[in-house]
Design brief:
The structure is a homodimer of 291-residue chains.
Chain A lengths: L1 E2 L5 E2 L7 E4 L2 E5 H8 L6 E3 L5 H9 L5 E2 L2 H8 L9 H14 L4 E4 L8 H13 L4 E5 L1 E2 L2 E2 L2 H15 L4 E5 L10 H17 L4 E3 L6 H11 L3 E4 L7 H6 L4 E3 L3 H19 L12 H7 L2
Parallel strand pairs in A: 5-14, 6-7, 7-8, 8-11, 11-12, 12-13, 13-14
Antiparallel strand pairs in A: 1-2, 3-4, 9-10
Helix pairs in contact in A: 4-5, 5-6, 6-7, 7-8
């Protein structure tokens, strides 16, 4: 394997789904992506939403690129939450997988459709677009889907994948404060067990950063646990110390980028100055990254 | 007209190419966009590159939305400089014009093609996509096209537009430091005169921020002059005082946004913290903007 100075695995971007070293295929990107959940290091995902952000994240040393569904939806003209058209979402995934060499995992919200068949169609499209991982969430209309319904959707996704696609099952009980707080941990663990039986490879529980609760989730889930981090949350090392396998930044970087747009536009339109636009901009560097 | 507290013209986003007030059509968006170059206020364009940035800029009070070709190309996976496919560029323009109510002007680099016919095809696509303005540059391979060639391209664009499309002819003599500095001002003015005769409505000279030179350009061009501003350049009011009609921020906001991605990713991947991601992120506000 081509291991960089920072310990991350790197490989040429032009060899499709396979990893090559001295001309010999080693493992697929999907296999590599699975391995990244089971190593000594926490898999850190600074979520991207377009080709430029994906290339910048890869260039920053990321072992994999994950999309943020919110950032993707906003950049393409839709609110977050299954409002973006499947075709636009899949085209975006293909643009990113074409541009980066590391494994790509796509957040496809709840799967873009009401029925398990819709989820299956989305998953086939995700695989065809070259992603090796996917996030599927159980959130629905401010709450969560019934467990049996989400199990059917995950099973449909597993069957549709036909490959080693890493299915990260997102449970929104904490994010949407579903049900009685006293039973939320157990409800979440029950969902996790059902989702893993349905074919999920890992569990993503956003909205919980309390380390004791996270540690309980790690112990109870028994598969790679993904948490959502960001300003105010514990650092990656703290999550890693309690056994978290994967830390995602979600939509926070996209939100911060568009907040910069807002501040820059307001300043230029009101005071007519440009101090909100940092001076260390790098046209040539970005242009070179896209070649 | 629906004039906001900040003096900008606003109108409902759902009425296509026309401006409506109390149910009566007043002027087209193209007419409004022309007027914005000839009023008392400098037209300030905080350039956008996707739907979210366009909506954020509009929401910040902008009278019009302009795209940055560099930001558009990077976000879609190409370097700047006529490398992006025309179809991807036009789809992006359509997504933006569908999402915002204010006039949209599109930077289409040098027109996506070697021949005037290619430029004409691009312009027909831009008009069909709902933009009411366009930037066409004479830069080519680090220098500038022969004047006669660029005149043919602008004439083809003018003929193809078939409407009141505002054609902003960009002259890259200063940006690319073309020729003898002693004759650059006169060369630029000669190009401006030729481009205006070919049908351009205004002249864009990026790469010059010296106010004396800008003032000479304003006097010599005799049509709305657009300059490129950003960190370190004079403020909008200073440009306005010497007669500049339009100030663009170009790719600087996009560069700053992707620089934020870089810093956030590097920090999360190395120290495992998130201080590069500002805390004032606004998921709900962005989501609401996209509805």
């Amino acid at each position: 394997m081509n291991v960089r100075a920072d310990g991350h695995v790197a490989f040429p971007p032009d060899h499709g789904d396979a990893c090559w070293w001295n001309g010999v295929m080693t493992i697929t990107k999907a296999e590599l992506f699975h391995q990244l959940h089971n190593g000594d290091r926490v898999l850190v995902l600074a979520n991207a939403w377009d080709v430029a952000s994906a290339r910048v994240v890869e260039d920053a040393g990321a072992a994999a690129v994950a999309t943020t569904s919110a950032g993707v939806a906003w950049s393409l003209g839709a609110p977050d939450g299954d409002r973006l058209g499947r075709d636009l979402a899949l085209e975006l995934i293909a643009r990113i997988t074409t541009a980066v060499g590391v494994p790509v995992t796509a957040d496809v919200e709840s799967g873009f459709g009401a029925d398990p068949d819709d989820v299956a169609e989305t998953i086939r499209g995700v695989v065809a677009a070259g992603a090796v991982g996917v996030n599927l969430e159980d959130g629905l209309h401010g709450g969560v889907r019934p467990v049996t319904e989400q199990v059917e959707r995950l099973a449909a996704a597993r069957e549709a994948a036909q490959t080693g696609l890493y299915i990260n099952a997102r449970i929104d009980t904490y994010l949407r404060a579903v049900g009685d707080p006293a039973s939320r941990l157990q409800d979440t663990l029950d969902r996790a067990a059902a989702y893993l039986r349905a074919g999920a490879d890992g569990i993503f529980v956003p909205g919980v950063t309390d380390l004791d609760t996270v540690a309980s989730l790690v112990r109870g889930v028994g598969a790679p646990l993904n948490v959502l981090a960001g300003p105010g949350s514990p650092a990656v090392a703290e999550f890693g110390a309690v056994g978290v396998a994967r830390v995602s930044l979600g939509s926070s970087i996209a939100e911060a980028a568009y907040d910069l747009v807002r501040r820059s536009a307001r300043e230029a339109l009101t005071s007519g100055t440009y101090e909100s636009v940092p001076c260390n901009c790098d046209y040539d560097e970005l242009n070179a990254l896209m070649r």
